[in-house]
Amino acid sequence: MTSVLFVVTGATHWTLADGTAHPTGFWAEELAEPHRIFSEAGYRITVATPGGVAAPVDQGSLRATVNGGRPGADRLATYLESISEVLAHPAKLAEVDPDEYDLVFYPGGHGPMEDLAVDEDSGRILTRTLESGRPLGVVCHALAALLTARHEDGSWLFAGYRMTAFSNAEEAAAGFAEKAPWLLQDRLVEFGADFVAAAPFTPHTVVDRNLYTGQNPGSSAELAQLLVRAAATDPADVVARLRGTFDTGRTRPLAWRLAQLGALRTLLTEQSTEFMAALHADLGKGETQAYGEVSFLLNEVDHTVAHLEEWLAPRPAAVPATFQPAEARVVRDPLGVVLLIAPWNYPLHLALAPMVGALAAGNTVLLKPSELAPATSAALARLLPRYLDREAVAVVEGAVPETTALLEQRFDHIFYTGNGAVGRIVMAAAAKHLTPVTLELGGKSPAVVEPGADLAVTAQRIARGKFQNAGQTCVAPDYILAIGDTAAALEAELTAAIETLYGPDPAASSEYGQVINERHCDRLAALLGDGRLVTGGAHDRVARYIEPTVLADVSPDAPVMGAEIFGPVLPIIAVPDLDAAIAFINERDKPLALYAFTASEQTKQRLTQETSSGGLVFGLTISHLSVPELPFGGVGESGIGRYHGEYSIETFSHLKAVLDKPLS
């Protein structure tokens, strides 16, 4: 059940500029209407006040003149009477843990100007709620409470946030502009708010990230309805919210797209330490590998921002003489609502890299992080709403049941990264709605090593690509095809390369990661007996540790040569010549990547022309992902579609043909 915390004033008066006390409290409509809407939605509601004092209603807010007549006033009074016990015995703010609630709501009235504006417990609740990414709703004068929320360095927590509140014009119309010790609009602007006011007493709400604000009493119901949609966890409701946002056209302007990319960059820079800690908790990633995920994303964002306007420009197309005079162009339209299903091996990188393209193309996005990387999943769910447009970006956590429920919904594109078995499930679900898919899968990516290559350099580069992230990389070299007499010499070089990378005991290296869980550790340990052990072979199930392992004299039919290894086990297969290597590759599923270490231009040409793979790299491994103008994707069993840079815009856009023929 969704739980809501109402933080309500306990003040019975407001001290005016001349020192007199004006009777006040909470404004009836601002508490009663949201309370009713949340109750009808089935929410559990807790009311809290400073010191746990009874929450007083401003009697002026029950007058017929401010409620559209006597029936409206009576309706509010009746509702407040129905919850009078709750209002008479609220919780104490000092004892409230905001983490126990799914959203927090502040009703207004002049009372908050007296007490919540200086209440440290309220400031603690506001700070924690905003930082948690959960929805925070504040209406009218209750925004005075925001003034107490501070960062550790003393700066205002809400600086730069777009918001609305009871305006100077409304205060003047109510007769308090000259009497107030300070005006709320002025104070919020002074503190650094991006204040937006509508015409006096017009219902008006503003949403900025996870902050939801309403201008005046008449905005209360609309604000509560927005919060109900924001707190929804049912997949159908979440998708409906994202589709509703897309249908308004809000995500189409270049300015919105660039703002989201800028916010994503800010998130990555401000929260890099937290993300790196999560990656270490999930996969044992050391500082270099963990920051590698962050830096890749920063580069992807920067490259996209630098070129986005150019990429989105309509492309002119030639028109045949038959249709002249006429003009033709190709326009890139956003698709709509995009579902991103992320994997566990690079749980930050592979969640946010496709998001860069989806947002840049003008879509709304629903992200499903991997439940197998729970720390990173939780960080994404908490932090993304703090930085991105919450009405356009949503995160749904969970495992198979939640993913299954999501796949029952209609999306406009589904982007999945993972294994082929689940990829088929995703594709089958998408087919029911004729939804296009991108499948970033994997496969057994070979590394061809030819005589004449510098084997020391080759071994270093293969080892670095293979054993990074404990071998859990979709484009890691899966096995080596050693041509001619290179296998024996390569064994010694690989052994030396591993020690150079991780020292004599990789288990003690801060840069060598863990296997994701015990099940995968068991799977990998079962492969260690295939062939002859060259180096490694140690494993510890409890520590989720598999030592970097090289196997030689491996049969092509051995279990280790069956499915993708996806771990730190590297088999060497000896083949007599390049023809045999090419035949070996072509007899199997098309790999996500093919690597070759050779000094022969003829060999490079043959591999380019005679093999098929998602990517082909000479002299390196895995590095093609970091070239922003290269597409990344698989072919056949290794995937469908591509992304990165402009290719992401292409993936998440519809290329619309436009032909314009004058009528005269």
TrEMBL record:
It comes from the Bacteria. Gene3D superfamilies: 3.40.50.880, Aldehyde Dehydrogenase, Chain A, domain 1, Aldehyde Dehydrogenase, Chain A, domain 2. InterPro entries: Ald_DH/histidinol_DH, Ald_DH_C, Ald_DH_CS_CYS, Ald_DH_CS_GLU, Ald_DH_N, Aldehyde_DH_dom, Aldehyde_DH_NAD(P), Class_I_gatase-like. GO terms for biological process: aldehyde metabolic process. Pfam families: Aldedh, ThiJ_like. One of its GO terms (molecular function) is aldehyde dehydrogenase (NAD+) activity. GO terms for cellular component: cytoplasm. The active site is at residue 440. Keywords: NAD, Oxidoreductase. Residues 217-658 form the Aldehyde dehydrogenase domain. Belongs to the aldehyde dehydrogenase family. This is Aldehyde dehydrogenase domain-containing protein. It comes from Streptomyces glebosus.
